Amino acid sequence: MNENRHRPLRVGMLTPSSNTCLEPVTYGLLQGAPGLATAHFARVPVTRIALDTGSDAQFAPEPMLAAARQLADAKVDVLVWNGTSGSWLGIERDRALADALTAETGIPATTSTLALLDACAAYGVSRLGLALPYTRDVADAIVSTYAKEGLECVLAEPFGEHDNEAFARIPPADVARQIERAATDGAQAVAVVCTNVYGAFEADRLEHALDLPVFDSVSATLWRALDLAGARPSWTGHGQLLRDGSLRAGIQCVLGTLLAATGADRTTFRVDLPEHGLHVDLTAGEALGPGVRSIRRDASLDQRRLNTVEWLEAERRTLVQPHFREAPHPPEALKDVYGVRAQMLSPVETGGALTGWISVHSTRERAWTDADRQAIEAATAQLTAPMAPN
User: Where does the record place the GAF domain (predicted)?
Assistant: First the structure.
C-alpha cells in the first residue's frame, strides 16, 4: 500500500504468553537491518507443552484470531504465529491457521513451523537434525510430523522440559552443545524447534564450526515474515538463513516454475556468488520430478572444465541438446549416474562474466520446443537480476 512505502515494515507476532525469549531475540536480530522493520507482539495463553487435550486446547484458533485482530489495528504488514505447535500437532493445523488469520484480517500470515519447512525447502534439506527442549514423547511426535513432510530427522536427546517458561532458562551453551549433537548421521542442517530457546545468537558461530546451516525458530520466523512481506531480508551476523534464505527461496521458486513449464525431470542452477556461500561445483538450487535422483550435493566434478560449460563460456547463448551424440559432450557421470539423456543449459552473466548457468535435464532424448527455450530464457532473466551488483 502506498502509505506504507516510506515506513519500516510492521511484523505482527502472535506470541505464547509464557515466552520470554522471542521478543528480545527478535529485537536483537532486527538491529542487523536498521530501518527495515519493527516487530509488534500480542500474547495468547500458552504455558505447558505436552501431548494431551489440555495442552492442545491452548492452540485453538479463536484466541489467535482475537490477537490477530488487535495487531491488524496497528496496520501490520504480515502476521505470524510465533510458536512451533504445528510441529507436533500437525502441519495441516498450521496451514489452516495461516489461512484463517489471513481470512480474518486480509494480512498475509505464516507460522514458525511453516517457516522452518520453508527454510528446509530453500536449502534442499531432506535430513534434518533436531535440537529440542521438550519431553521425549513430544520430540517423537515432531519426528513423525516432519517425516510426513519428507524430512528424515536426526534427534539429539531433548532436554525433557514441559514448562514453556522454563525453556528460556536453558543456558545458551547447553543449547549449542545440543545443536552440535544433532549435526551428525548425515544431517544437512539443524533446526532449533522452539521459539523460547536461545539458539539464534549461536547460529552463526556454529554454522562455521559445523559447516551446516542452523535454522533457529525465532530467526526462521522473522526471516519468513519479512520475506512474505516482500522485504527479501539479507544481513550478516546471525546465520545463513537471514543472509541467504530469501535468495535461495527465490531460486527454488524459479526452478520449480521452469520444471513445470518444460515438463523436464530436473532443473538446477549453479552460480559463483561467494558472498552468499555459493559456488558452481554445488547447485544453488534444484527442482525434481517424481522419483528423480537429486544431484544437489554432488561436488565431484570441476564444473568450469566441463565441455558443455566451456561451450557456454565461448558462445554465451543457450545450449540445446536433444541427445548427446554431438559435441559438446556432457560428463559421463551425468549420463551414467543420473540418467540424463537430453538437456538445455543457459548462461547467467554478471558484469560480462559467466557467473553461472541453469540446467534443464531430461531422462529421455527429446526435442526441445520453442516454448521450452522461452521458458529457460525467462528463468535466466529472473535469476540474472538478483546477481547484478547494487
Answer: 254-383
Q: Does pLDDT of 387 surpass 80?
A: no
CATH topology of domain 249-387: Beta-Lactamase (3.30.450)
pTM over 0.85: yes
Give which of 231, 165, 207, 180 is closest to 22, Cα–Cα: 165
65: Cβ–Cβ under 8 A, 6 or more apart, which residues? Answer: 100, 101, 104
With 50 as the cut, is the pLDDT of residue 359 above it?
yes
Confidence check: pLDDT of 389 > 80: no
CATH 3.40.50.12500 in the chain, residues? 2-238
Contacts (Cβ under 8 Å, ≥6 apart) of 306: 330, 331
CB 46 within 8 A of CB 83: yes
Contact by Cβ (8 Å): 213, 36: no
pLDDT at res. 145:
98
Q: Which helix (H) or strand (E) holds 12?
A: strand 9-16
- pLDDT tens-place string over residues 50-99: 999 999 899 999 999 999 999 999 999 999 999 999 999 999 999 999 99
Please state the length of the chain. Answer: 390
Q: What is the DSSP letter of 219?
A: H
37 SS3 class = strand
- The amino acid occupying position 157 is E
Choose which CATH entry (3.30.420.40, 3.20.20.150, 3.40.50.12500, 3.40.640.10) describes domain 2-238. Answer: 3.40.50.12500
Enumerate the CATH 3.30.450.40 domain ranges in the chain, comma separated: 249-387
| DSSP state for residue 281 in the 8-state scheme | T
Q: Is the pLDDT of residue 1 over 50?
A: no
